[in-house]
Design a protein that fits this description.
alpha+beta; 6-stranded antiparallel sheet; 2 helices
């Protein structure tokens, strides 16, 4: 399950991870969180979760552009693939629900494979 509380807890657990240059919480309320995990100045992972509207956005941003994402809208997931982040993958892999920490590991693997880390 993914919710604001689990993301907050995960951010605390990642605070000492050497992968991240810094972690910034941009917005935090009881039902909403938005944060960025910087790998370097031009590369970060952004997380946005609104428990009330059941919206989750997990994305990798490189030089100001989304390069990969997984989004949940009212319980339904889709993915923006690394090969073409404008595309909406609603197939079995795209619809697969992920936790925030699963997304972090997926992002790490994609970035290593793309030689961005």
């Amino acid at each position: 399950m993914i919710d604001t509380a689990s993301i907050s807890a995960a951010l605390r657990s990642l605070a000492d991870d050497p992968l991240f240059a810094r972690i910034e919480v941009l917005d935090l309320t009881r039902n909403l969180i938005k944060a960025r995990l910087y790998l370097r100045e031009d590369l970060f992972i952004q997380v946005y979760r609104n428990d009330r509207s059941q919206v989750t956005n997990l994305l990798i941003v490189l030089e100001g552009q989304r390069v990969f994402a997984r989004d949940q809208i009212r319980g339904s997931w889709h993915r923006h693939p690394f090969e073409n982040s404008a595309e909406h993958d609603t197939g079995p892999e795209g619809q697969r629900a992920v936790t925030f920490l699963e997304f972090i590991e997926e992002a790490r693997q994609l970035l290593v494979e793309a030689r961005l880390l």
